[in-house]
Amino acid sequence: MKNMLGHPHARLATLVGLVLVIPLGVRALLGWSDPLGYLSDLAIGSLLLLLLLRSPWWLALPVLLAWGGLLVASAELVSAVGRLPTSADLAYLFDPQFMENSTGGALAHPWLPWALGLGLLACLLARGWRRSQPVQALPRKAWTLPLLVFVAHWSSERLAPSEADQWRQYNLPHQLLSAGVGDLQRQADRWLGRETASEPLPSAGLTQVDLNGPRLIEGPGSARNLLVITLEGIPGAYLRANRQALHSRFDDDLMPNLSRWAERGMNTPDYVLHTHQTIRGLYAMLCGDYDKLANGTPKGVELLTQNARNQACLPAQLRQAGFTTHYLQGAGLRFMAKDRIMPHIGFEAVHGLEWFRNDNYLEFPWGKDDRAFFEGALGYLDELRKQPQPWMLTLLTVGTHQPYSAPDDYLQRYDTAKQAAVAYLDDAIGAFLDALERQGVLDDTLVVITSDESHGIDGVRLASSWGFNLTLAPEQAQLPRLNPGTYGHVDLATSLLDYFALPIPAALAGRSLYRNYDSGREMISFTNGLLRYHDGLGTLSECDFQQRCRRYASSGFIADQARFLGRSDEPAAQQISALAAVLDQSLLQTPLNLRYQFGGPAPIALSEAIRDDWADNLIGAQYLEMPEGSRTRVRVTVRALGKANQAHIQLKAKEYEQDVPLGLPEEIKVTANEPMVLEFDFDNPSARKAFSFHLLGYGTGEVEVSDFSVITALPGEEESAEELPQDEHVAQSS
After folding, report:
1. What is the rounded distance in angstroms from the CA atom of residue 308 to the CA atom of residue 305?
2. What are phi and psi of 398, to 5 degrees?
3. Does position 105 have pLDDT exceeding 60, yes or no?
4. Measured on CA atoms in the order 209, 211, 217, 221, is the torsion positive or negative?
5. Which residues lie below 8 Å from residue 510, measured CB to CB, with a gap of 6+?
6. Which residue ranges form the domains of the chain, and what is each CATH number?
7. Is the separation of the CB atoms in 370 and 400 below 8 Å?
8. How far out from the chain centre does Cα 272 lie?
9. CA 582 to chain centre
């Protein structure tokens, strides 16, 4: 070994093995084979080789660690949810606490870090043994190799665009580099006045209610109650009826129980999910609006600044109509502020993991496994059925979130943990629906089964946008087995209000699933880094991270195959991007976030120790945006409940989950008589995105976070933002 590493060309050979051989081999082993992908790996690898061959170890080591981290992060996220990381969630994958929760302590490809680690060790040893001898520089013409490969990739992608997934065409450093170059080019065009302003496409077809089709059910629906079951991450391809209707080549029957129930209900095969992330999917389906078609503050969080638009959401409307409204999920509520968002949109009872008293069947880091969750939900339904009022219950599972836990017998029967977890969910939802039928719940309850987002399916076109909607209604005979139209989460609130023949607020959008339409309709989504827009007239446009758009002939949105029509010209691409920007501003007409209030009177139990920034976060103040040139003021008041109790409180600020130094104290001791009152402000010289506060605590008993205000305004206008009437800009605590 010493003789090999002491060879004059050892440094070159070990570096070639690390940055070229390993990534090319990984691509082949993971099944990501595509000519463009191999070109991408060759381009980045050869560039690293030239840059680092003669560089000192203290410079090469952090670069190679970062590069290796990107490779591992890409493999893990593609395996988990079928997409490449974006700049907004990239930092999650380097947060060891989040990764431990998301992977259950075990990576999907544990051999990859070992391979990279051994390759890196060999490089460092070769450098150590040869440090006394200078390394001969490569010929200058060698620098033309990465340039030629980059040009070949760029030319091929434009002359013969591929429909392959992005991780097949790019490695993550190349994608981030390409996106950065595109951003710089657009910024330069703006500075030089070369950018041509494009009017956004008309948005009425996306933002207005359309009830112009005849009803499928004569008069109001006969159901008295409403049950909405939301399954974490399940794509529409898992239902056999959807695959058959769209002639999908995907034929894995992972959910036979749910498919069996789908034979008895109304399915909507062409059902579109507009975004990734649970809180965004819940907002779209419950509030009849598109969430951000990019990476920004979720609209559910923005909704906390308003006490008007939230009243148009489905739970608030049903509550006004005399329903009792309930929300139950299998995980804790505080992350992403669901403990505040759900009451704010009209749920009068909101429960998470703390509500359940039944034991789990298996250990799962995010909360209740699916079998235990649905067994607990049956008990919740028993109590609801004893009350005289009609009710609405929304359920959210978490078992099919990575790390995809499942019992050993399921793991032995399936190739991957994801497939085993899906099968475990299928058995759980099948048993739950069977129980509902035995107990007579289906006789007077409208049941809608859907998913919050799609974790994608490798090799299935548009799988990241393909959702499902299964309706089980008392008057099922009047409904078709297949609903032929194009629908999405934005239609769900309008549809359910239409079923019960209740007034539909003008703020909602969409068509009713319970009407028949004889025309196409517009639809838009942003998943897997691609902005997709269907014009309702047979053309689907798909725009990538560089705002380059391709056009396809497609009668609906979701299709197994579509005929490529060519590239969109630049003005058309700008129009689609401008349309998405218009939809993003449907809540806040100002770029400023005004005032958020995340505090409230609810007691919060403390843990004995802080395990990590995720599990012990006391407040859901995540993914905020601060515009360039603004100033943010924060006020926090925390006190211990009970004279004998004391708490130790920390406040961290993060941007893209990387710590932001704001000069905050490391830890503050809090008692009932000595509360923590913290007030500070900071400037935002450049725009901040994915900015999060993590309020952490440990000790005995409970605490109350009576105030957690975040006010962002232009310098000098913070006071006016604070003086605005509370009922106009601050969500009331429930």
Report:
1. 10
2. -130, -5
3. no
4. positive
5. 209, 210, 288, 487, 488, 490, 491, 492, 493, 494, 495
6. 2-192 (no CATH), 220-516 (3.40.720.10), 594-729 (2.60.120)
7. yes
8. 15
9. 21
Neighbours of 358 (CB within 10 A): 13
Contact between residue 721 and residue 711 where contact means Cβ atoms under 8 Å apart: yes
Nearest CA to 321 out of 499, 475, 448 is that of: 499
Residue 725, helix vs strand vs coil: coil
| Residue among 712, 597, 701 nearest 337 (CA) | 597
707, exposed or middle or buried, with CB in 10 Å at 0-12, 13-18, 19+? middle
Strand partners for 567: 550
Mean pLDDT of the chain: 86
Chain centroid, CA 393 distance in Å = 23
Distance CA 377, CA 370 (A): 10
pLDDT-derived band at 517, boundaries 50, 70, 90: very high
At 504, list the tokens: 């539909």
Which residue has tokens 């001898």?
133
| Beta-strand pair 510-511/324-329 | unpaired
* Residue 492: closest CA among 703, 286, 732, 731: 286
* 229 beta partners: 395, 449
pLDDT (tens digit, 9 = 90+) per residue, 540-597?
Answer: 999 887 777 889 999 999 999 999 888 887 778 888 888 888 888 777 766 565 678 8
Distance of CA 451 to the CA centre of its chain: 12
Longest dimension (CA), the chain: 88
Count of CB atoms situated within 10 Å of the CB of 212: 11
pLDDT at 90 over 60: no
pLDDT digits (tens, 9 = 90+) for 374-383: 999 999 999 9
Other Cβ atoms closer than 10 A to 373: 28
Three state DSSP letters for 257-269: HHHHHHCCCEECC
Dist. CA 691–CA 659, nearest whole Å: 10
* Three-state DSSP string of 65-83: HHHHHHHHHHHHHHHHHCC
For the packed helices 172-192 and 35-52, what is the interaxial angle rounded to 10 degrees?
A: 80
Structure tokens at 653: 């600020």
- Please state, in angstroms and rounded to a whole number, the distance separating the CA atoms of residues 396 and 278: 9
Indicate the DSSP class of residue 473.
-
What is the spatial distance between Cα 110 and Cα 120, in angstroms, rounded to a whole number?
A: 16
| Residue 590: DSSP 8-state | S
**Cβ contact 318:498 at 8 Å:** no
C-alpha separations of 678 from 191, 650, 705 in Å: 41, 11, 12
User: For residue 17, what are the contacts with CB-CB under 8 A and spacing of at least 6?
Assistant: 119, 122
Beta bridge partners of 467: 271
How many angstroms separate the Cα of 576 from the Cα of each of 60, 524, 568? 42, 10, 10
Vertex 396: Cα angle to 392 and 400 (nearest 5): 160
Q: How far is CA 491 from CA 337, 444, 512, 659, in A?
A: 24, 23, 6, 39
Token representation of residue 291: 């969430």
The Cα–Cα gap between 378 and 381 comes to: 5
Q: Which two tokens stand for residue 552?
A: 């396809």
Q: How many residues does the chain have?
A: 734
Count CB-CB contacts under 10 A for residue 482: 15
Residue type, 628: E
Cα–Cα distance for residue pair 157/548, rounded to 1 Å: 11
Backbone angles phi, psi at 228, to 5 degrees: -110, 115
